[in-house]
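Exercise 7.
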Amino acid sequence: MIDLPTHLDLADSPYWGLTFGQVLLAFGGFFLGFLLWHILPHNLALTLRVAISVAPLALGLLLALVRPAGRGVLAWTGIFRRYVRTPKVTLWSAR
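Solution. The predicted structure, written as tokens, is:
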């Protein structure tokens, strides 16, 4: 057991070195792919059915494992939302 100071603000990574959010993204992709596999008609071509089912899994793994500039996808989503919501033009008026 390693004791870390509480002010470091480190995320726990108990699942194969992944945080809970990363595991949730990967599992969500797996679940959506599994759901699509069972929802798609069985008379559909096997390669097309596999490709449609594997796409959400690949996207979930990509979102979970790719960390540009050391930040996860959820952090970049928050940064992008803040950027979009802030005004780009400031008006100044002399009183």
